[in-house]
Structures are given as structure tokens and as C-alpha cells.
Task: inverse folding
């Protein structure tokens, strides 16, 4: 393993960015409403707009905030079939498989796992026919994939997530 690879592995998940209570308040507000104006955000965090802009820019530059997005209701967006697909891969194929899976339409999330399966893939498709194509032709057809198992999702709910508004995290 090269020194660069070692530093990536050693640093991964071990050193979180230092977040003071104001940073946490900004994150909580943005997670609650990603379209909030900087003026309203600054008012709620009890800081100036310039300070809010600076803090947001720092968190973006540091990679803590990786983007701003919209959360869609999959069913109302025409993606009525959701499934988790566990994938078993060749031992050294993670990078190649990950890159190929990212290219497949309807694949929303890919995670390298520990346990019985190597990779977990979240697929949101318009219907069972599209899901079948994604799983049996695209995922199974990916070089390095040895097998898969599919679980249909009947209903979903969101948890609270991390309590960013508190300083004790």
C-alpha cells in the first residue's frame, strides 16, 4: 500500500472536522431547509450574513458539505419500485465494480459492506420490468460480480439522522 493510500485509510472516519455550536446550527438549518436564504440562516444562527457565507464556504471547501440537493418522493417522480440489491464480488474488484455500478441508470446508492455481502445497492426504478433489467442484465452483467440477492421495499420512513443542533455529537 502506498503512503497516499495509507493516509487515506488511516484518516478515513477517524478525524471529524471541528464543528462549533454555530457550525452545527448552520448544518441543522440547511438540513431542515436547503433553500433557506443566507440572511434567514444568519438570523437563526445569530451571526452576520458575512460570517454565515464564510462558514458555509469553509464547510464546502473542507468537504464537510458535499453538495446541496432536493429530496424527491420517488413514487411521485415515477420511480414506483424500490429494492436493495446485495452483491457478492470478486475480492479485488471493488473499484471496478463500483465504477460500473455508478453508470447504471436507477442505481441511487452503492455501499461497500462488511458481512455476508460485499456491496449493497439501492435501486429505484419505474416498475418491476425496469428493476429486472437493472438487476439481471446490468448488475449481474458487471465484470467482477459473482452473485446478487434482491429485496423489494414496500414502504420507507426517514429517521432523525445526526442531531446537528446539539453540541454533544
Result:
Amino acid at each position: 500500500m502506498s503512503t497516499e493510500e495509507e493516509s487515506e485509510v488511516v484518516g478515513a472516519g477517524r478525524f471529524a472536522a471541528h464543528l462549533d455550536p454555530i457550525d452545527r446550527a448552520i448544518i441543522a438549518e440547511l438540513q431542515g431547509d436547503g433553500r433557506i436564504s443566507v440572511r434567514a440562516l444568519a438570523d437563526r444562527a445569530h451571526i452576520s450574513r458575512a460570517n454565515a457565507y464564510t462558514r458555509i464556504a469553509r464547510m464546502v471547501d473542507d468537504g464537510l458539505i458535499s453538495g446541496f440537493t432536493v429530496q424527491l418522493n420517488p413514487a411521485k417522480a415515477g420511480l414506483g419500485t424500490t429494492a436493495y440489491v446485495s452483491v457478492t464480488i470478486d475480492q479485488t474488484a471493488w473499484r471496478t465494480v463500483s465504477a460500473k455500478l455508478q453508470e447504471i441508470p436507477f442505481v441511487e446508492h452503492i455501499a461497500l459492506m462488511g458481512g455476508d455481502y460485499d456491496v449493497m445497492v439501492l435501486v429505484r426504478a419505474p416498475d418491476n420490468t425496469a428493476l429486472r433489467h437493472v438487476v439481471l442484465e446490468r448488475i449481474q452483467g458487471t465484470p467482477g460480480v459473482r452473485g446478487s440477492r434482491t429485496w423489494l421495499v414496500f414502504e420507507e420512513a426517514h429517521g432523525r439522522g445526526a442531531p446537528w443542533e446539539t453540541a454533544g455529537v
About this structure: The mean pLDDT is 89. DSSP finds six helices and four strands in the chain.
